[in-house]
What does this fold into?
Amino acid sequence: MIIAIDGPSGAGKSTVAKAVAKELGFSCLDTGAMYRAIAWRALQNGVALDDNEALGQVARSYDISFGHVEGDPVPRRVFIGDDEVTDAIRTAEIDRAVSPVSAAPAVREALLDQQRRIGNGGNYVVEGRDIGTVVFPDAAVKVFLTASDEERAHRRVRQNVDRGIGSIDYDEVLADLRRRDEADSSRATAPLRAADDAVQIDSTSHYIEEVIEQICELARSSS
Ligand code: DC
It folds into this structure.
């Protein structure tokens, strides 16, 4: 079974996806981390971020994989080829580079194959922007998770403080979220939007535990 969780940056997708996977005993796939890993590799290789073909070549040449920290059932470590990029893909530099990289059709095509191959291998909670619309249009459960811009910016600042990486300036984080929302929603290929049959959940005024429980309930009642 596939549970698709889409929505803008900072809506709580990662936290919710990982908790739902843990509760249901599913695996979990963070597709945003895959785009970030390609952005990291492209910068390392000196690839121009507006060169669709060269970016596609990067995405086709490297496998992205996930690993576990001992004792944690949720895969939090990210690798591209043999390089671990778990922390390197969470910097402000990658936040900026990932928009043009994820807008490149050749990159999306290459990652679509990888994402389907991984997800079709079992029970998965898959989070991203186009999971319910493009990657897994037949997903058993589709959720579109949102929150107000301000709430999302506050959460991202707290997350960056906890991780010790990324910007902790609220205004800068808010501006970056809005810039990425605009880029994600307006790109020609697989833009961010809710699938017609997605359940829309606004997490601004709900405890995250309620959101997690609501999605688990949707999964239980659809199986
Ligand atoms: O979820 P995130 O912030 O880690 O995602 C990083 C970027 O990747 C974000 O700008 C949107 C893009 N993305 C995408 O285009 N499609 C996906 N399925 C997942 C992420």
In short: The beta strands are 2-6, 27-30, 64-67, 77-80, 83-84, 124-128, 141-146, 199-202. The domain at 2-216 is CATH 3.40.50.300 (Rossmann fold). Residues 170-186 form the longest helix (17 residues).
